[in-house]
Amino acid sequence: MPLRVLALDLERTLISDANSVAPRPGLVKFLAFCHDRFERVVLFTTVEEADAQSALDQLVDRGQVPAELLAPLKCVTWTGEYKDLGFIADAVPEDVLLVDDDGGWVRPGQRDQWVAIAPWDGGPDRELLRVQQVLLERLGVSPI
């Protein structure tokens, strides 16, 4: 099956945390890349949906990320011990890749769908650029 959906973690993956909401270096280019290559990009986070939306709104309000890159990111509603890709509407787990800094949240039977990213708490970083290359490889596309 083709990879159609990209699920993104929020804290320590895209931003520092939901309190300080510092954007990870390269976030704007990374989100544009994701939207260009996947039919859908969703937010799969342990942060409550209202708090996650508030964090995204802050990025827009501060002029750090254009609204058109964040508006399509809908939060996946889920429960349980793992980020089960089966919770993503209109997709089967084999259609989805999950970018997350914490493998402990990945459902054991879905680890092949996980793209690991180093956790980020601030400072210089090039992980989003590295993950772009990994995503291209997973999509079967030649690297940039």
Describe the structure.
- There is one protein chain.
- Helices cover 28% and strands 12% of the residues.
- It is built from four helices and five strands; from the N terminus they run βαβααβββα.
- The longest helix has 13 residues, at 49-61.
- With 144 residues, it is α/β, with parallel strands linked by helices.
- The chain has helices at 27-37, 49-61, 67-70, 127-139; strands spanning 5-8, 40-43, 74-75, 96-100, 114-116.
- It has a five-stranded parallel sheet with strand order 3-2-1-4-5, covered by helices on one side.
- The chain has one domain (5-139): Rossmann fold (3-Layer(aba) Sandwich), CATH 3.40.50.1000.
Any chance you could write out the topology, listing elements then pairs?
Blueprint: E1 5-8, H1 27-37, E2 40-43, H2 49-61, H3 67-70, E3 74-75, E4 96-100, E5 114-116, H4 127-139
Beta strand count = 5
Briefly note the structural class of the backbone: alpha/beta
Helix content: 25-40%
Give the termini separation: 23 Å
> What kind of sheet is the major sheet?
5 strands, parallel
Low-confidence stretches: none
Total individual domains: 1
> CATH homologous superfamily?
HAD superfamily/HAD-like
CATH-derived architecture: 3-Layer(aba) Sandwich
Concise synopsis of the structure shown:
This protein is an alpha/beta fold and 144 residues long. 28% of the residues lie in helices and 12% in strands. The chain has four helices and five strands, in the order E-H-E-H-H-E-E-E-H.
